[in-house]
Amino acid sequence: MNLPHDSGSSRPDSIRTEHAPAPVGAYPHARRVGNLVFLSGVGPRDPATNSIIGNVYGSDGHLVSYDIEAQCRTVFANVRAILEASGAHWEDLVDVTVFLTDMARDFAAYNRIYAEYFTAAQPCRTTLGISALPTPIAIELKCVACCPLLPSREGAEGG
Predict the structure, then answer these.
(1) Which helix (H) or strand (E) holds 68?
(2) CB-hemisphere CA count at 13 Å for 145?
(3) Tens digits of per-residue pLDDT, 140-159?
């Protein structure tokens, strides 16, 4: 993994990590520009197996039910892994956009779990109810973090 450094330019650096599930399209886990880290949408898939945590499927392969609490906790773990790969920390989050596919059913549980994870550092938050996501997940997060610049590559290489 190549971490971004302060090179005096605003060229975005792509962030990819094996500690979060692979993106489902042609995009990186995150992009870092200066001290800002923009995460792509993050869902509740297991990084090792790519399975969707909390989903229960019938014998015909169709989704029967899901566990929103398990999906929330998995999404937060995946966000944390991407932040760490970006040189940022959970406390560096400044904005979180949450997409729920069933606001009426899931908001109370999601909001309670969110409060467990965001105690002292509380980023701005927007929660949207939507009809579907690209894969059969109940929650997805889109996040922005603000963190210190890493030392310059030139300085790190003695140049």
Answers:
(1) helix 68-85
(2) 25
(3) 999 999 987 766 544 444 44
